[in-house]
Amino acid sequence: MRFSDLLGMAAVALARHRLRTGLSLLGVAIGVTAVVLLTALGEGARKYVSGQFQALGTNLLIVLPGKTETTGAFPGFGGAPNDLTLQDARAIRRRVPQAELVVPVAIGNETVSHAERRRQTIVIGATKDFLEARRLGLAHGEFLPDIDWERAMPVAVLGPDLARELFRDENPLGAIVRVGDARVRVIGVLEPRGTQLGLDVDEVVIVPVASAMRIFNRSSLFRLLIQVAAHSELAHAQQRVVGIISERHGEEDVTCVTQDSVSGGLNAILAVLTLAVAGIAAVSLTVAGIGIMNVMLVSVSERTSEVGLLRALGARRAQVRALFVVEAILLSGAGGAVGLGVSWLLTRLFLAWYPAFPAAAPAWAVGAALGLSLAVGAIFGVLPASQASRLDPVLALRKT
């Protein structure tokens, strides 16, 4: 009996019971769809996070107040023994030769209003170098002036969405807006950029850092952004920064974060989560395999006479066993192919709704899902195939 004969007979047997075959195929298809789709979303999340960090450049060092230990809180939260001040930022700019840019940043929530329009939004206090450090661009006007960090100046740069909401079709340049109780003049509007690391840049207000600290009535900075000349100098610059702050504060009470460490850690977490959800989804393939086994056991009981005739015509037990295994693999393989098609379609639909999210199933996930579906058919088809091969041809023919 040739392999083509086995395929033909298996296809005819499956087509004979369309409803039963369709339900078994559906179980495999759902399992494969879940594996591939969840993997595509997990991989998309990993690429999205990596892209967010790459958009900021690769030579950025972020300094946050508060020392993070293995059992401590997330850096920047939970309080710090000493404030991170403008004087600290000056010392770093003066004593760290690798630092091309040092940007002190203060952040808070405040009400921004113009005429009768108002809204609560994020206010960022920064310097002129913030534009380059965060890889932002200007659509209109100019950015913050090059002034002394401790000088408060009543000027502001708006995100494009906020400018549109406050001014509608009017030109915001030169207009006065209120940030909390402070009156500031709009000197620029940012280019649309969307969300960066959880912050919607299109809806922020950027003012000089001293102005922000006065508005929020605080003396501590939220963080320092330090851009070094070369990626290879990040480690040395980090050591210098920690040494300077420790010397000034009498203890090491800051956390230095590089983009590599954060993106690498998040990538590792997302990779584990992707594998975890894919593994959970793969359980449904096992359930589908049990369904295939049950279908094949019923098929064996219904085709006793067929098996007896094959054995009487000279078919060997191995050939009978192969027939039922091929039938199970054909069933699970068809379900796997349907699942791949459905997952591709759902991924395309997701991308149509969220084009900025790079959801795409990696090749290994597609291959693993299809291979697993074929393996499920082969594994769970062995028991029914073995039972069919052990049928006595004489007894089988008597049941006709």
Summarize the structure in words.
The structure is a single chain. This protein has twelve helices and twelve strands. It has a six-stranded mixed beta barrel. The chain has a two-stranded antiparallel sheet with strand order 8-9. Helix 2 crosses helix 10, helix 3 crosses helix 7 and helix 8 packs parallel to helix 11. The chain starts with a helix and ends with a helix. About 2% of the residues have low confidence.
What is the spatial order of strands in the main beta sheet?
A: 2-3-10-5-7-6
Mean pLDDT: 82
- Give the end-to-end Cα distance, rounded to a whole number of Å: 23 Å
Q: Report the sheet with the most strands, covering strand number, pairing sense and barrel closure.
A: 6 strands, mixed, barrel
Stretches where pLDDT is under 50 for at least 5 consecutive residues are 70-78
The ordered H/E elements are HHEHEEHEEHEEEEEHEHEHHHHH
What's a concise summary of this model?
This protein is of the alpha+beta class and 400 residues long. It has helices spanning 3-16, 18-54, 86-95, 130-133, 160-167, 209-216, 234-249, 259-302, 304-312, 317-353, 363-389, 393-398, and strands at 60-65, 99-114, 117-126, 138-141, 155-158, 176-179, 182-190, 195-196, 199-200, 205-208, 223-228, 254-258. The chain has two domains: 3-52 and 264-398, no CATH class; 82-252, no CATH class.
